[in-house]
Design brief:
Structural class: alpha+beta
CATH topology: Jelly Rolls
Mean pLDDT: 91
Radius of gyration: 16 Å
CATH class: Mainly Beta
Number of domains: 1
C-alpha cells in the first residue's frame, strides 16, 4: 500500500497520513511531484534482466523520455543479501539535492522517500507500480530499510546519472525509518 505522511519539519510526531492513491497524487502535485501508477506490458520473471524490464515498460518510458528529454535509463536493484547494503542505505539517508530531477519507478519491493519542502516533510512510501519524480533542488532523502528489497527503473536527463549535493543536515535522523514507518501503518 502506498502512503503519504506530511509532517511539520520540526515535529516528526505530528504527521497526517493519506493512503488513497488519488489523495496522495493530489497532495504531491501541489509541490510539483509527479506520482503515477504503471503496469507492465507483460509478465516479468523475478530474475528479468535490464533489457527485459525496460521492454516491459517501454510505452511509459518512451512517453516520459519524450516529455522530459531523458538521456539515460537503467534498472537498479538491491536485496537483503547484498554485501554493501548498509553503505548504500547510509548514503541515501543523508539529506541531499540534485540539479536534475529524480525519477524512480518501483518494479518490485518498496522504499521511503522524504521530501523537505517549505517547512514540511513529506514521507512517501512507494511500492511496486509507483512512479515518483522528485523536483530538481528539492531537499530529500531515501530509506530502503535495514533489509532492502527493491528493483527500480531510474531515468536521467543527464548522462552522468545520480549526482547528489549533500546539505549536511541531520534532519533525517528525526523521522521514522522505513521499517518504523511500515510498522506504524500496520
Amino acid at each position: 500500500m502506498s502512503a503519504l505522511t506530511v509532517y511539520p519539519d520540526n515535529q516528526p510526531q505530528l504527521g497526517k497520513t493519506v493512503t488513497d492513491f488519488s489523495g496522495i497524487q493530489a497532495q504531491l502535485n501541489t509541490i510539483g511531484v509527479q506520482f503515477e501508477r504503471w503496469t507492465a506490458n507483460c509478465e516479468l520473471a523475478a530474475d528479468a534482466d535490464q533489457d527485459t524490464v525496460l521492454a516491459a515498460y517501454s510505452d511509459s518510458i518512451d512517453r516520459l523520455k519524450q516529455q522530459y528529454n531523458f538521456q539515460s535509463v537503467d534498472v537498479i536493484s538491491l536485496n537483503p543479501d547484498h554485501p554493501d547494503k548498509a553503505t548504500f542505505r547510509q548514503k541515501f539517508l543523508s539529506e541531499h539535492i540534485h540539479a536534475d530531477f529524480e525519477v524512480r519507478f518501483f518494479i518490485e519491493g518498496r522504499g521511503l522517500f522524504y521530501l523537505h519542502i517549505e517547512g514540511k516533510v513529506y514521507a512517501i512510501l512507494c511500492e511496486q507500480g509507483d512512479l515518483i519524480s522528485v523536483p530538481a533542488d528539492a531537499k530529500h532523502w531515501f530509506d530502503m530499510g535495514e533489509n532492502p528489497r527493491f528493483k527500480c527503473i531510474r531515468l536521467f536527463t543527464t548522462p552522468d546519472g545520480w549526482v547528489a549535493d549533500f546539505t549536511g543536515s541531520d534532519i533525517s535522523a528525526s523521522f521514522p525509518t522505513l521499517d518504523q514507518y511500515v510498522a506504524e501503518l500496520s
